[in-house]
Design a protein that fits this description.
The complex is a heterodimer.
Chain A lengths: L2 H15 L1 H23 L11 H32 L3 H4 L5 H27 L10 H25 L3 H17 L12 H8 L2 H14 L6 H25 L6
Helix pairs in contact in A: 1-5, 2-3, 2-5, 3-5, 3-6, 3-7, 3-9, 5-6, 5-10, 6-9, 6-10, 9-10
Chain B lengths: L3 E12 L2 E13 L4 E5 L6 H9 L6 E6 L2 E2 L4 H6 L1 E4 L11 H11 L6 H10 L15 H13 L5 E5 L7 H16 L3 E5 L3 H7 L2 E6 L2 E7 H7 L3 E6 L6 H4 L3 E3 L2 E6 L2 H13 L5 E7 L2 H10 L3
Parallel strand pairs in B: 3-8, 3-9, 6-7, 7-8
Antiparallel strand pairs in B: 1-2, 1-4, 4-5, 9-10, 11-13, 11-14, 12-13
The chains are: A mainly alpha, B alpha/beta.
């Protein structure tokens, strides 16, 4: 096991040790959404022809949970280590900034996937999920979690206090995930909001992910893939630069 | 080749009040296997110097090497050669002592480090705490873990940043026995401390910094010789006459004053008597490192 693998392993173990809070809790939250929205809207809304509302909702909920949790993983690990001071143990090692980036992002992907699988399992109680294009599902799951893991690195390095990170999470991440078409197809929105949604990168993650389940999507999955991959590279590049220069951690 | 080499190191912080110079052109070398003391008052720049050495802070100017490896351009090799025991009692609350040591070994690319980890735990009196969570440990135990963490990769150069601050007598002895043994086996040690009797007993050479500048760099024995003055020590219940206050080391009732000869002794005692005080338990002793330290800090030359 070389250096980055150990850091990756440590980061996975960190969330796994408090799995009740980091995996079970978000799964429960997603189940609540499912219960309430499914109950209220089932039979009243049909987004895609022949797809029930609950079936439509599942992929959106899975993706939303993955995105929020992969972001939480890297960002909360970094801010905790910074505030507690134990980041020094990693700062003193020969690990390169690539090792940091890779370990923090990949452990976030693992948490995202763990939560995603959990949400998938509990919601499958509402009906056997349908996997039209499994590869697309996996690709968007990994890219989406990776993007948010990298965004978590950026936010975790930038924030100096827990409340700054909470502000980022509550005022940027949560609205963007909620307004990305988790609960509806953006084609049901007025033109202005449809156009606004097209500016939200989260929309493409959810739309592309949903394509993998139903073979239906609001925009071409290739366009979604191109946008998500570009966003991944962009945010990953920012995170890489911040780690390389030791932004706020090496003064 | 030096174990550590500081070459013209400066550090300037930009603060809202303007530029603040924490270190100003500091140069000195520590030889392989040497036990070296870095002394100075709080805020003198000791920790900044160590942070630059460890790669936690970037120097504004100058160059630092560990075993010949530049800490910036060849940081990985430099950090492999360096173990740092930080001043703050930091810990990762998620893991046990053994887990933390295993991770730390892994970050340095060391597999199967169990034997050395056991030896560290044994030597530092941590064997029965191996499975304890870091949160459950007392301050002294956390300090030992920090020491073990700094040594997982068997670094040839060890930095101790005030390792005995707030540590009880027993642990202090354990730590010094352990560090002395490492040093005997060839590890170079850079120690910063405010306990000057420790520095006097352990360090072969000493550097003193004040306001970011190097003000002394000598063998400990030469430093002690430099203080030719002996010290007059006595207990006093009444206030010390004003003329002596500036030079005096006062600890509660105990007053210590430099007194190079009998005339000086007579003068001090006479002025105390004139002020209506009585000096008790009077003794004269040779100067120690603390006297030299105070003299250097007051009048660096």
């Amino acid at each position: 096991m070389n250096g980055w693998q150990m850091l990756f392993y440590k980061e996975v173990l960190r969330f796994w040790k408090v799995g009740f809070q980091t995996v079970a809790a978000p799964v429960l939250t997603a189940m609540m959404y499912m219960l309430i929205f499914g109950h209220v809207l089932e039979g009243r809304v049909e987004v895609f022809d022949g797809v029930s509302y609950t079936a439509f909702l599942v992929p959106g909920l899975v993706m939303m949970s993955m995105l929020q949790n992969s972001f939480s993983n890297s960002s909360s690990s970094l801010i905790q280590s910074k505030v507690m001071g134990n980041l020094i143990f990693i700062l003193l090692t020969p690990l390169s900034h690539w090792a940091w980036l890779w370990a923090y992002v990949m452990s976030s992907v693992v948490r995202g996937l763990a939560v995603g699988v959990g949400v998938m399992l509990v919601t499958s109680w509402y009906g056997q999920p349908h996997f039209e294009h499994p590869l697309w599902i996996l690709m968007f799951a990994v890219l989406g979690s990776g993007l948010m893991g990298a965004m978590g690195v950026v936010a975790g390095l930038w924030a100096e206090k827990f409340d700054q990170l909470a502000a980022f999470q509550n005022f940027v991440i949560v609205p963007m995930t909620f307004l990305s078409g988790v609960f509806y197809s953006i084609q049901s929105l007025p033109t202005f909001w449809q156009n606004a949604s097209h500016l939200n990168p989260f929309f493409y993650m959810i739309d592309g992910f949903r394509y993998g389940f139903f073979g239906h999507s609001d925009v071409s999955p290739w366009l979604s893939l191109a946008i998500v991959a570009t966003a991944c590279l962009l945010v990953g590049g920012i995170a890489e630069r911040m780690l390389r220069t030791g932004y706020k951690v090496r003064h | 080749m030096s174990a550590i080499s500081f070459q013209g190191v400066s550090k300037t912080y930009l603060t809202p009040k303007g530029a603040f110079s924490a270190l100003n052109d500091v140069s000195f070398d520590i030889r392989p296997g040497e036990f070296f003391g870095l002394l100075g008052p709080n805020g003198a720049g000791k920790t900044t110097l160590i942070s630059i050495l460890a790669g936690l802070t970037k120097a504004s100017a100058g160059r630092v090497t560990v075993n010949g490896f530049d800490v910036v351009s060849d940081y990985a090799s430099a950090r492999r050669a360096l173990g740092v025991v930080p001043q703050e009692l930091v810990f990762d609350p998620f893991f046990s002592v053994r887990e933390a040591l295993r991770f730390q070994s892994g970050y340095f690319g060391i597999r199967n480090n169990g034997d050395w980890i056991d030896e560290l735990l044994e030597g530092l009196g941590l064997a029965d705490k191996a499975t304890a969570n870091m949160r459950q440990l007392s301050g002294g135990m956390k300090r030992r873990v920090l020491m073990a963490l700094a040594l997982v990769h068997k670094p040839p150069v060890l930095v101790l940043d005030e390792p005995t601050a707030g540590v009880d007598v027993e642990l202090r002895q354990t730590l010094w026995q352990f560090v002395t043994r490492l040093n005997k086996n060839g590890t170079a040690v850079l120690l910063t401390t405010h306990y000057l009797e420790e520095a006097e007993a352990l360090c072969a050479r000493i550097a003193m910094v004040k306001k970011g500048q190097l003000v002394a760099l000598e063998k400990t024995s030469d430093l002690l010789e430099r203080a030719s003055a002996s010290v007059l020590r006595f207990k006093l219940d009444t206030p010390l006459p004003d003329e002596w206050v500036a030079q005096a080391r006062v600890t509660g009732r105990i007053v210590q004053l430099p007194a190079p000869n009998a005339e000086a002794v007579e003068k001090i005692l006479a002025s105390i008597r004139a002020a209506g005080g009585i000096a008790e338990q009077v003794e004269i002793r040779p100067a120690d490192l603390e006297d030299v330290f105070l003299a250097v800090m007051e009048n660096p030359s």
